[in-house]
Specification:
This protein is an all-alpha fold and about 525 residues long. It has 23 helices and two strands. Helix 7 (about 170-220) runs antiparallel to helix 10.
């Protein structure tokens, strides 16, 4: 039995050796495959966590943009309201009306002559128009005090002297109120839209830099330096180069001062000229349809933004948003970043931020997104607020859309009644709390896509020219980064629709994350 077993083993020893080799190779191959699968699963998990972290930072950044706009918008609103004091004109009209009524209470022959010279219909129209302004308009308490004190001084002089400011006729005052009310509301819409875009660019550029700084700190090997060291403020400092330079960030954000104080006034002048040209011949007592008002509003927009697609694409908004280089030091002084005696040039890091911001503002994508934001803002003002408050058209809904179309086609309202709504809505547009217009603007999907392009583009340009961390920086490229190319690609996809443009932004997130982790992945391998 034992001898036969030995013979059988001797005859099949080759087969046993081959089988053992096959089993061993299979075991090793299986372990290798399991290791690779586990490594790929861990990499996918890390990438998913990293992308979610990037998305969370991005969404938080957009919320910060909203709060920032609400915080600084009242500054521009105050300057625009001060430049176009509609309430002062209203006070002058009310004072003239009171003087006419005081004169009509005199002797019977004077009263009869006043009645004959002023038709009852005109008097009633003025009374209704002024009443609508009193009930629907918004007047600051300081303006009420100024107008009341001014009227008291004039009344004390008992008609022997009249104020030089009351020399304007009633027609002139109504025309001035018409132009000022409409121009003020339109200017605030432009200012709000431009401020929203500028803030998105600024905070997303800084958010990108701060995000990259955290990635670089994670990818870098732990430092063996002592815990106490000297501070390095040179430009080759990696922390400062990646956006942790608090002073550079403060100076960069302070450039919004230009739009809040200078740019908004330039926009005001341009919008006022367009409103005068379009609405100049319109009588405040005239009744017009909502469709006619929409057409006039569109004419104003064409004169401000451009009548054709090519004119809108070539319209330059940079001068309203950022100062020229020779005025940058002036802006820093006015915003409190530097003193009157200091004259420090922009640091390379600040210069890079300002140059990239200028490229973004001059890109076609910026103009495309701005047009969409203005469409949403003007639609809320004209098609919703004016239609509801002035023309008494019920709000639009899926069930009442046809009813509103029928009612709105025949509905008419006096221009003076619409002016009261324009006056009140101007304060709502410039409000720093519960701003419906900002909500409507931020609901435009392409705004988020544009912000995603800004946040995820040009990661490689944030690296210093000479450092030990390689982020795929191509030295053959220009030292001045430009996101305009990426923004132009985004605008091409945005024309398809908001959903398609946001898909492009999603892929931008993935490529940006891959670039940012290039060094870390190389070390793991």
């Amino acid at each position: 039995m034992i001898a036969s077993t030995r013979k059988w083993l001797r005859r099949n020893r080759t087969n046993f050796a081959i089988g053992a080799a096959v089993l061993g190779a299979g075991y090793l191959a299986g372990q290798y495959v399991l290791a690779k699968v586990s490594e790929a699963r861990q990499r996918m998990s890390d990438d998913r966590i990293a992308k979610e972290n990037l998305r969370r930072r991005f969404e938080q950044n957009q919320e910060d943009c909203t709060f920032t706009v609400l915080a600084i918008l009242p500054t521009a609103t105050e300057n625009i309201l001060e430049a176009l004091p509609v309430e002062r004109t209203l006070s002058e009209l009310q004072k003239q009306k009171a003087e006419r009524l005081a004169r009509s209470v005199g002797p019977s022959d004077i009263a009869s002559s006043n009645v004959q010279s002023a038709p009852p219909s005109a008097t009633d129209d003025d009374t209704k128009s002024l009443t609508s302004f009193q009930s629907e308009g918004y007047v600051h308490a300081s303006q009420i005090a100024d107008s009341s004190s001014g009227s008291g001084e004039n009344s004390g002089e008992a008609g022997t002297q009249t104020s030089p400011q009351s020399k304007k006729s009633k027609v002139q005052l109504w025309n001035e109120m018409k132009i000022s009310s409409i121009a003020r509301a339109f200017t605030l819409l432009y200012t709000l839209s431009l401020l929203t875009l500028l803030t998105r660019i600024q905070l997303n550029l800084l958010g990108r830099r701060n995000y990259l700084a955290s990635v670089v700190s994670l990818a870098s090997p732990p430092s063996q330096e002592p815990r106490i060291n000297l501070e390095n403020n040179d430009d080759d400092n990696l922390e400062h180069a990646y956006g942790n330079d608090f002073e550079t960030n403060r100076r960069y954000l302070s450039f919004s001062w230009w739009l809040l104080h200078r740019g908004c006034i330039d926009i005001l002048n341009k919008v006022t000229a367009a409103v005068k040209e379009v609405f100049g011949n319109l009588n405040p007592r005239e009744e017009i349809t909502l469709e006619r008002l929409s057409e006039l509003t569109l004419e104003v927009r064409k004169k401000v933004e451009g009548a054709t697609e090519e004119e809108r694409r070539t319209c330059k908004w940079l001068a309203y948003l950022l100062p020229s280089q020779d005025q940058e030091e002036y802006v820093l002084r006015e915003s409190g970043m530097t003193t009157a005696t200091s004259n420090s040039p922009a640091s390379p890091s600040l210069r890079r931020l300002l140059d990239e911001t200028s490229d973004l503002i001059d890109s076609p994508a910026f103009t495309h997104v701005l047009t969409l934001l203005l469409d949403a803002a003007f639609s809320l003002l004209i098609d919703t607020k004016i239609a509801t408050l002035s023309y008494k058209i019920p709000p639009t809904s899926a069930s009442t859309a046809r009813v509103q179309e029928i009612v709105g086609a025949d509905a008419k309202a006096k221009v003076a009644n619409s002016l009261a709504v324009f006056c009140r809505q101007a304060h709502n547009i410039g409000s720093g709390a519960n701003n419906e217009y900002l909500t409507a603007i931020e609901n435009v999907r392409d705004l988020e896509a544009f912000a995603a392009v800004v946040y995820s583009s040009n990661f490689e340009f944030e690296a210093p020219e000479a450092n030990t961390i390689d982020l795929n920086l191509d030295p053959s490229r220009s030292s001045r980064p430009s996101t305009a190319g990426a923004a132009e690609k985004s605008s091409d996809s945005e024309t398809i629709g908001g959903e398609a443009s946001f898909v492009g932004a999603e892929s931008g997130f993935e490529s940006a994350w891959g670039k940012a982790l290039a060094k870390e992945d190389g070390k793991k391998e």
